[in-house]
Amino acid sequence: MKVRAETITCVAEVDRSYKRQAGGSGEFARVKIRFEPAPRGSGVVFESAVVGGSVPEQFVPGVRRGIEEASQEGFSAGYPVTDFKAILLDGAYHDLDSTEAAFERAARLAFAALKDLGAPILLPE
């Protein structure tokens, strides 16, 4: 069997924070993302379902980028992860310490949790 990619096989909700304090200002972001398997060939689908400003709109591209980039690195086998949907449900930010880059890192941490929670499988070519 020749492998081309990985995917997840079950729904997983992941809540992850990224915090870093170095001297004066720090970095902070929290994301709650639901990952769902998607039909074969659908690629990576991202949606934001955040209401009420828990994740300001200017940070959402960082979440998307974190998920997309992490999915290209794969889990343990190193193949890209595809055919899943990621829905940003909620999160938190800090007026002084939150940045788009902090949200990207939080999304990467959430994606990494799928290795244990998403029941990943290898997809044959």
Overview of this structure, please?
This protein is an alpha+beta fold. It has a single domain, classed as Ribosomal Protein S5, domain 2. It is built from three helices and six strands. The strands form two sheets. It has a four-stranded mixed sheet. It has a two-stranded antiparallel sheet with strand order 1-6. Helix 1 packs across helix 2. The mean pLDDT is 94.
> What is the succession of H and E elements?
EEEEHEHHE
| Rounded Rg | 15 Å
Write down the oligomeric state.
Answer: single chain
Q: Estimate nothing, just give the exact number of structural domains.
A: 1
Q: What is the overall number of helices?
A: 3
Q: What do the pLDDT scores average to?
A: 94
How much of the sequence lies in strands comes to 35-45%
Q: What is the CATH first-level class name?
A: Alpha Beta
Cross-sheet strand order for the largest sheet: 2-3-5-4
Low-confidence stretches: none
Topology:
Blueprint: E1 3-7, E2 12-21, E3 26-37, E4 44-48, H1 60-73, E5 84-92, H2 100-112, H3 114-117, E6 121-124
Helix pairs in contact: 1-2
Search tags:
alpha+beta; elongated; 3 helices; Ribosomal Protein S5, domain 2; two-stranded antiparallel sheet; about 120 residues
Q: What would you say about this model in short?
A:
With 125 residues, the chain is α+β, with helices and mostly antiparallel strands. The chain has helices at residues 60-73, 100-112, 114-117, and strands at 3-7, 12-21, 26-37, 44-48, 84-92, 121-124.
